[in-house]
Design brief:
By secondary structure, the protein is an alpha/beta fold. Helices cover 32% and strands 21% of the residues. A hairpin with a 7-residue loop joins strand 19 and strand 20. It is globular and about 65 Å long. It binds guanosine-5'-diphosphate, 6-O-phosphoryl inosine monophosphate and magnesium ion (MG).
Length: 423
């Protein structure tokens, strides 16, 4: 039975939550492997809409185990609130497991995130979600982070938490920034720790025993490949490995078990936050994509920047992720357009390249080389099979697949479960 990885191939918000929900109909375990509550994964079932931040998007399939892996940074208060909210909405949260090795995010990380952004010169601001992601991963790499397992010994946990909080307060004071009330913060953290303790377990054992037993496992990525700390548009990235390689370390599963990689790819491009975006449309066409696609951040509500499909960035993404199968989402958002553009190459200093430059500043300067395709000018929202798509929509999809050298396996034409079909 397969161990599949699902990742976003662009700058996040490709529709990963929806696809995970669709693919988990016959999945035993879903494992989130990186990121934190910077993610916002939307799942629409019937007339209900859910936005998940930490809980894997397999939670809507009864009996599917939902693992929050060691590669995450987890805000315990947010996780508790998210779990209680799901429970209040009638979902079974007993299927959730939190890795002993996941690192924790506290208020001081969020304050440090805000301080870093405020102190950054213009042009250096990242436009983070201010969820404390960067500072928590920094603490992990500096080996001063606090892990979920420490919540199981409250006395020792309190001591370490207070030591760290006092250290961070000194930094805040030095910058004239607001300090945190350590006592008040501890009371909230303690309540979350008590709530979460029954869910904390060695999830690496859970996942490996399941893999050996031939169970069907799906590893859920957050963010997108172009936000990867190594391979994305650094420094305008998040602080984890969002690419498929991150699934092995972040879920604790060996590469030999991985069967295939799903890449979720929007039929156009969006980005939220700062950083280069060669095909961005800053005109009415971009505004139209934002409006029709309802492109507003699921976590922060910020308007997403919108642009044409970028085959250079997407081809690079498929390469570094080893994408076997693509799920193309939001095709319906393009329904009303007369003409569509695809960026097939970049022009850099008069030279044409089909490769993604590793110099992020250079990416700011590139000129996209476009090819145009005619639109299809009719609704695809009710289409349920590839051959019922308008011919121009099929041509557009075939062109994208050819340019990124990957096979399209699923097409999504709306936010609902049923608005999905195999290619
Ligand atoms: P994620 O972070 O990758 O899970 O994506 P988000 O949930 O942040 O953003 C995707 C948005 O598009 C959500 O509001 C989804 O409900 C919606 N969505 C997903 N697939 C489709 C689709 O095929 N068509 C349309 N119109 N909306 C979709
Ligand atoms: P999902 O999983 C889109 C972006 C932020 C910012 C950068 C760094 O829903 O696709 P961070 O708070 O992580 O330090 O911010 O990354 N970002 C996302 N953009 N979708 C996400 O997640 C994102 N998570 C972080 O906007 O530019
Ligand atoms: Mg999202």
């Amino acid at each position: 039975m397969p161990v599949n990885i699902l990742i976003g191939t662009q700058w996040g918000d490709e529709g990963k939550g929806k696809l995970i929900d669709v693919l988990t109909e016959n999945t035993d375990i879903v494992v989130r492997f990186q990121g934190g509550n910077n993610a916002g994964h939307t799942v629409e079932i019937g007339d209900k809409k859910y936005v998940l931040h930490l809980v894997p998007s397999g939670i809507f399939r009864p009996g599917t185990l939902c693992v929050i892996g060691n590669g995450l940074v987890v805000d315990p208060i947010s996780l508790m609130e998210e779990m209680l909210d799901l429970k209040a909405r009638g979902l079974d949260i007993s299927v959730i497991q939190l890795s002993t090795k996941a690192h924790l995010i506290f208020e001081y990380h969020k304050l440090a995130d805000a301080l870093n952004e405020a102190a950054s010169a213009s042009g250096r601001k990242i436009g983070t979600t201010k969820r404390g992601i960067g500072p928590a991963y920094s603490d992990k790499a500096a080996r001063i982070g606090i892990r979920a397992i420490q919540m199981q010994n409250l006395a020792e946990f309190e001591k370490t938490f207070r030591e760290q909080a006092v250290k961070y307060n000194c930094i805040f004071k030095g910058h004239g920034a607001p300090e945190m009330d350590v006592d008040a913060a501890w009371q909230k953290v303690k309540a979350a720790a008590e709530f979460l303790n029954p869910y904390i377990t060695d999830t690496v054992l859970t996942v490996n025993r399941a893999a050996r037993a031939g169970k069907n496992i799906l590893c859920e990525g957050a963010q997108g490949a172009l936000l990867d700390i190594d391979h994305g548009t650094y420094p305008f990235v998040t602080s984890s490995n969002t690419t498929s390689g991150g699934a092995c370390t972040g879920a604790g599963i060996a590469p030999k078990y991985i069967t295939s990689v799903w890449g979720v790819m929007k039929a156009y491009t969006t980005r939220v936050g700062e950083g280069p975006f060669p095909t961005e449309l800053k005109d009415a066409a971009g505004e139209n994509l934002r409006k029709v696609g309802n492109e507003y951040g699921a976590t922060t509500g910020r308007p997403r920047r919108c642009g044409w499909f970028d085959a250079v960035a997407s081809r690079y993404s498929c390469m570094i992720n080893g994408v076997d199968k693509l799920a193309i989402t939001k095709l319906d958002v393009l329904d009303g357009l007369d003409e569509l553009k695809i960026c097939t190459a970049y022009e850099v200093d008069g030279q044409i390249t089909e490769d993604m430059p590793s110099d992020t500043r250079a990416l700011n300067e590139v000129k996209p080389v476009y090819e145009s395709m005619p639109g299809w000018k009719c609704s695809t929202a009710d289409v349920r099979s590839y051959y019922d798509l308008p011919a121009n929509a099929r041509k557009y999809l075939e062109r994208i697949a050819g340019l990124v050298s990957a096979e399209i396996a699923i097409i999504s034409v709306g936010p609902k479960r049923e608005q999905t079909f195999m290619a």
